[in-house]
Amino acid sequence: MSHAANAPQRLTARRSGPLSGRIRAPGDKSISHRAFILGLLTIGETRIEGLLEGDDVLRTGAACRALGASIERLGPGSWRVRGAGLGSLPAPAETLDFGNAGTGSRLMMGVVGGHAVTARFDGDASLRKRPMRRILDPLELMGARVLEQGEGGRCPILLEGTPEPAPIEYRTPVASAQIKSAVLLAGLNSPGRTVVIEREASRDHTEKMLAHFGAQVRSETFGEDGRKITLEGRPKLAPRPVIVPADPSSAAFAIVAALVTPGSEIVVEGMMMNPLRTGLLTTLLEMGADIVELDRRVEGGEDVADLRVRASALKGVDAPAARAPSMIDEYPILAVAAAFAAGETRMRGLHELRVKESDRLAAVADGLKANGVDCAIEGDDLIVRGAGGQAEGGGLVATHLDHRIAMSFLVMGLASRREVAVDDETMIATSFPTFKPSMAALGAQFS
Ligand code: S3P
């Protein structure tokens, strides 16, 4: 089912009473993609619990099927994958259509790039705008060939993989878990050792899951903020159960909604606390957010916690560029929090936001301005001057096929003087299909 093909649907959020109750965000999107992919590359039965059943992940599942996996849904969030196995993937008969999914398409390019198969990658209008050269460059170094590509190395792309990927040492040009993961996934089928060096550490779910499935992978610190990851090629992967924790990038919407909606108190359950994903929490705490960890524990190899969140008087802060990789998807909702804070918030080093599902830097600034919020873009920084307490609202926000822009501005509408509308809510299904009912259960008013 393609949401890209669906007619846009407008949705409006209006000032809501205090939010209260408990919410569990759906499974983490990054881990869900990787669970399907590792399942494909492993012979035997991989069981997944808590999978995000959003469009993006289901596209990756469909691509895994096209590459030889058999995949079954056993119940809500519960899936079984029988993989084709590393080194023995069949060529897909049809185009791998990733819809809106940047992560799925880029990781799968790594898989295809390291196998003797040729596959065509495509997606919706948003995916077709996203840069893929950053993935294709290292894959070409490993021996893959790009037979066809859209302008500037964009989708649609016809990629011919190599049966024997060259072992390389690769320094990622930007902190990107997607680039790192594509190289590691291609390197899995290499007869030698693949090394990826990143100047700033990005999310480490691929490394962790590879180790969980039995690969020999080592991660060391590199320089002040970086990492060096070393993977031994052609491991014998063994099926392992995967339990997917709640996605902090989705939980972020409920957290900020409770912080800015007066009188609110909610509990966010089972949120993943991987330090490479918690930059938003760090920043919100600096802003004066009343967020308390109730119960930290380990689930499925990741730290998780229940968080109690109470409405708070926030103040503006300076969010350093070095923190960007750990909250890269959270800037739209952080900008909304900043709109309710007293004083100026400066978010530094946001160049990567220009190449997400939309140009998020522009989309956020436009959305804030449409709702009467004083903001500016200076180079790669976003500056938001909050009035403290309340935002004006009253705007119609252009979402540009971007789920996080839609959800962020709907949250804004819950606490603004006037209602806030987004021009399209359909894309929310890519990452948080239950957003509307889950938020409504806390007291959010949408129409
Ligand atoms: C992701 C990595 C991030 C993030 C994306 C998911 C992943 O992208 O924005 O939503 O699962 O690896 P980059 O690695 O390109 O920064």
What does this structure look like?
This protein is of the alpha+beta class and 447 residues long. The chain folds into 2 domains: 3-27 and 246-446, UDP-n-acetylglucosamine1-carboxyvinyl-transferase, Chain, CATH 3.65.10; 29-243, Enolpyruvate transferase domain (UDP-n-acetylglucosamine1-carboxyvinyl-transferase, Chain, Alpha-beta prism). 29% of the residues lie in helices and 27% in strands. The chain has 12 helices and 25 strands. The chain has helices spanning 29-40, 55-66, 102-113, 133-142, 177-187, 205-212, 248-260, 279-286, 331-340, 360-370, 403-415, 435-442; strands at 11-14, 20-23, 45-49, 70-75, 78-82, 96-97, 118-122, 145-150, 154-160, 169-171, 193-198, 217-222, 226-232, 242-243, 265-272, 290-293, 297-299, 302-310, 318-319, 342-347, 374-378, 381-387, 396-397, 420-422, 445-446. The strands form 6 sheets. Strands 2, 15, 16, 17 and 18 form a 5-stranded mixed beta sheet that branches. A 4-stranded mixed beta sheet has the order 23-24-1-25. Strands 4-5-3-14 form a 4-stranded mixed beta sheet, covered by helices on one side. α1 packs parallel to α2 and α9 (331-340) packs parallel to α11. The protein is globular, with a radius of gyration of 21 Å. 55% of the residues are buried. The model has no long low-confidence stretch (mean pLDDT 97).
